[in-house]
Amino acid sequence: MEETKTKTVENVETVDVYTAKGLLSTGHRYLDVRTNEEFAKSHVEEALNIPYMFKTDEGRVINPDFLPQVASVCKKDEHLIVACNAGGRGSRACVDLLNAGYEHVANMGGGYSAWVDAGFAGDKPPEDLKIACKFRPQG
């Protein structure tokens, strides 16, 4: 019997926003793991929103239903581009997805903020489209 190794952040493929945009045009699905509030402000067209974490009075907590919610809308052999605001939650979500048997997941480096900064989100000013992130340099 072959032993399966638990996946870690080092196992996550990261793609830049330009690569992600190209992959989305060839049938990959965009899984936005930001909070509902972040998603409501602005998001990639046709994105699926399943928060990886929720904001609580105690801070951010992992969504205990994340994997079942993803399973309700995505097959394990689908090609997914996973993104959050800056990349951290997205990479952790990718680890969980890989460990749950999803075969083709990639984290979008820089998250939705990088998507906005690349000019892919439209003509509105960036501050109208994204949430400021204390972990990402302001551009």
From TrEMBL:
Residue span(s) of domain Rhodanese: 24-124
A Pfam short name: Rhodanese
Gene3D superfamilies assigned: Rhodanese-like domain
Organism superkingdom: Eukaryota
CDD domains recorded: RHOD
Signal peptide: none
Name of the protein this chain belongs to: Rhodanese-like domain-containing protein 19, mitochondrial
Native source species: Camelina sativa (False flax)
Gene assigned in the entry: LOC104713547
